[in-house]
Amino acid sequence: MLSQNLVWQETVGRIQKEHEELHHSTARFLDQVRQNQPISHLIEAMRHLTQHLKLHFETEEQLMRRASFPGLHTHRLLHEACMNQFRLETDFLGLGQVRSLDEYEEMIHTWITEHMRMQDRRFEDFIGSGVFTRFASSAPPDGCESTSGREAQGS
């Protein structure tokens, strides 16, 4: 367990930074939708968000491998499903299909916020740290809006 704790301590700052970047990216995308920005801006913001997700998932999976997390395979499949959804949304935007703000908030809540709260919690329990859930449950960093009104409602 000591080596697992050391692995965790090495990467905790990186994970926290990536969670902050995800909050910033989701807020940026939702702001673009909220402001009825041109579709080219929405595509750029969605690509930016998708890239942050990809980098974060790679970091998380690397940490899980190093910690010999038994749920890695299932967790990786969830990451793949999430990435597929965000790539599909980017494709839809490229075709001129823009969803409503509520639909994007729901998608982000389901695929990002709930993933941090529920799926990352399994790894947190394994590794013995509260970083993932504490961050996912907290307000976004200064300068970021909430990714969903549900957080304020205590979902």
Structural account:
It is built from 6 helices and no strands. The N and C termini lie far apart (33 Å). With 155 residues, the chain is mostly helical. It has one domain (2-137): Four Helix Bundle (Hemerythrin (Met), subunit A), CATH 1.20.120. 27% of the residues are buried. Helices cover 79% and strands 0% of the residues. The protein has helices at residues 2-34, 39-66, 72-94, 101-127, 131-137, 149-152.
Secondary-structure class:
mainly alpha
Q: Which runs of at least 5 residues are low in confidence (pLDDT < 50)?
A: 132-155
What would you say the CATH architecture is?
A: Up-down Bundle
String of helices and strands:
HHHHHH
Number of helices: 6
Give the gist of this structure.
This protein has one domain: Up-down Bundle (Four Helix Bundle (Hemerythrin (Met), subunit A)).
Name a few traits of the molecule.
155 residues; mainly alpha; 79% helix
Question: Strands, helices and their partners?
Answer:
Elements: H1 2-34, H2 39-66, H3 72-94, H4 101-127, H5 131-137, H6 149-152
Helix pairs in contact: 1-2, 1-4, 1-5, 2-3, 4-5
